[in-house]
From TrEMBL:
PROSITE patterns found in the cross-reference section: TIM_1, TIM_2
Active site residues of this protein: H94 (electrophile), E164 (proton acceptor)
Entry keywords, A to Z: Cytoplasm, Gluconeogenesis, Glycolysis, Isomerase
The keyword Isomerase is assigned to this record: yes
GO cellular component terms, A-Z: cytosol
Similarity section: Belongs to the triosephosphate isomerase family.
Reaction equations catalysed: D-glyceraldehyde 3-phosphate = dihydroxyacetone phosphate
Descriptive protein name: Triosephosphate isomerase
Positions of substrate binding: N9, W10, K11, G170, S210, G231, G232
Subcellular localization: Cytoplasm
Record lineage: Bacteria, Bacillati, Bacillota, Clostridia, Christensenellales
Length: 248
């Protein structure tokens, strides 16, 4: 059985002090969680939040990582820098990184391998745009993202995959639980073809399309969905804890 994983992506929100206050409020609310709980915080929050999380069941995540160990990459952060502060997970290839900052399947692949080499667990994001969904290219786009973005990966279950239906984010359109389950099922099937069926059965695939306290039960009841990559709802301890306790 795959252990569910609920990860909060704070994006560009919360100063270090605000982040510490949020996790201090969150810790007692999720102390008895039956799933893995992660908060992916801005780089400048990592040292303070890492300290605040000590002794808790909440793992620390970052929102990006560079693929080089060191060098002339102004503004970038290496995997070793993250590891030093106890970071366990790192988001790679988020739709916002692809849309605004030129992330490609190739750079996703390089970042993923750098993270794995350093002992970090990548949360690799895949997903299609509204135009791609409406023109029936969903499976084609996801196939390419998996083939190119995960190239050279020996065991796909060593990572977490997050499916982001980009077409359902900020467009007024929503993916039904059935649509999310069907697409995540396709991702798992593709992983079985590219890697191996046993690995594909073990890999955890999250849903990253605006999971919240209201829809988490329905989404998490779907057999293919193993968790959520949570945006806005992760910025409020009560809301995030309700998602963590989706089964109660």
């Amino acid at each position: 059985m795959r252990k569910p994983i609920i990860a909060g992506n704070w994006k560009m929100n919360n100063t270090a002090a605000q982040g510490v206050a949020l996790v201090n409020e969150l810790k007692p609310l999720v102390a008895d969680a039956e799933c893995d709980v992660v908060v992916c915080v801005p780089f400048t929050d990592i040292p303070a939040v890492s300290e605040a999380l000590k002794g808790s069941n909440i793992a620390l995540g970052a929102q990006n990582v560079h693929f080089a160990e060191k060098g002339a990459y102004t503004g970038e952060i290496s995997a070793a820098m993250l590891k030093e502060y106890g970071v366990k997970y790192v988001i790679i290839g988020h739709s916002e990184r692809r849309q605004y900052f030129g992330e490609t399947n190739e750079t996703v692949n390089k970042r993923m391998h750098a993270a794995l080499a350093a002992g970090l667990i990548p949360i690799v994001c895949v997903g299609e745009s509204l135009e791609e969904r409406e023109t029936g290219k969903t499976e084609q786009v996801l196939s390419v993202q998996i083939e190119e973005g995960l190239k050279g990966l020996e065991d796909v279950s060593a990572i977490v995959i997050a499916y982001e239906p980009v077409w359902a984010i900020g467009t007024g359109k929503t993916a039904t639980a059935e649509q999310a389950n069907e697409t995540i099922g396709f991702i798992r099937k593709k992983c079985a073809e590219v890697f191996c069926p046993k690995c594909a059965e073990k890999v955890r695939i999250q849903y990253g399309g605006s999971m919240n306290a209201k829809n988490c039960k329905e989404l998490m009841a779907m057999p293919e969905i193993d968790g959520g990559l949570i945006g806005g709802a992760s910025l409020k301890a009560q809301d995030f804890s309700q998602i963590v306790h989706y089964n109660k």
